[in-house]
């Protein structure tokens, strides 16, 4: 049976379009606070904290204010955010491929992320203006692999579910995407993604 033609390629942000290095900002905040990098990581980047602000339950500004107070650092939320944004490192090698896809197909962003990380990423992604829709967890109030997150994508994509290729680095998110009817690709490298894209007739 021939696979449906792909119309939309939806990309995760972290560890697909950029790498994530939480150690660098944690080390910087440790220098400023006197706490250990592990203690800083727990206060700023722990799963428990990220669940709150990446799901939109609290704002990132609230989280930043709480972390600044907990660490006893004298700085503004803006200064804290600048250090926090240093966790994202652009995956420049991916950009030509995504730009090439965008010449013939729609591209979308599908990410569990925070408001400052998306605002920061959109400045370094050369194709950010072409990402449509942009589904970010803090804005839609749900996180992958929750069905509500994928539902937000379907509501705004305007294409048949089985014509969406969903690219993510976490198998659990791909399993949920495939269960919802999309074609999934667990991202491990650009080369493997190019193979999948070629097999599906995207590039």
Task: Please give a structural write-up.
It is a single chain. With 203 residues, the protein is an alpha/beta fold. It folds into two domains: 122 residues, Rossmann fold; 65 residues, DNA polymerase, domain 1. 49% of the residues lie in helices and 15% in strands. Strands 5-4-1-6-7 form a five-stranded parallel β-sheet, with helices on both faces. A two-stranded antiparallel ribbon has the order 2-3. Helix 1 crosses helix 2. The longest helix has 12 residues. It starts with 7 loop residues before the first strand and ends with a helix. The mean pLDDT is 97.
A few lines on this structure:
The chain is an alpha/beta fold and 203 residues long.
Secondary-structure topology with pairs:
Blueprint: E1 8-11, E2 18-20, H1 23-33, H2 37-44, H3 47-54, H4 60-71, H5 77-85, E3 88-90, H6 95-102, E4 106-111, H7 115-124, E5 131-136, H8 137-140, H9 147-157, E6 164-168, H10 171-179, E7 183-186, H11 190-199
């Amino acid at each position: 049976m021939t696979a449906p033609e792909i119309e939309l390629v939806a990309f995760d942000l972290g560890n697909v379009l950029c790498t994530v290095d939480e150690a660098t900002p944690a080390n910087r905040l440790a220098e400023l606070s006197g706490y250990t990098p592990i203690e800083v990581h727990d206060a700023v980047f722990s799963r428990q904290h990220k669940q709150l602000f990446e799901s939109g339950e609290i704002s990132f500004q609230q989280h930043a204010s709480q972390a600044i107070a907990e660490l006893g650092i004298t700085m503004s939320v803006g200064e804290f955010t600048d250090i926090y944004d240093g966790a994202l490192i652009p995956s420049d090698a991916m950009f030509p491929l995504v730009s090439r896809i965008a010449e013939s197909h729609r591209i979308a962003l599908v990410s569990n992320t925070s408001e400052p990380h998306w605002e920061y990423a959109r400045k370094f992604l050369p194709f950010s203006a072409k990402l449509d829709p942009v589904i970010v967890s803090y804005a839609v109030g749900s996180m992958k692999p929750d069905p509500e997150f994928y539902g937000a994508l379907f509501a705004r994509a305007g294409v048949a579910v089985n014509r969406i290729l969903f690219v993510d680095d976490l198998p659990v998110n791909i399993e949920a995407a495939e269960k919802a009817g999309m074609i999934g690709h667990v991202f491990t490298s650009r080369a493997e993604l190019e193979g999948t894209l070629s097999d599906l007739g995207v590039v």
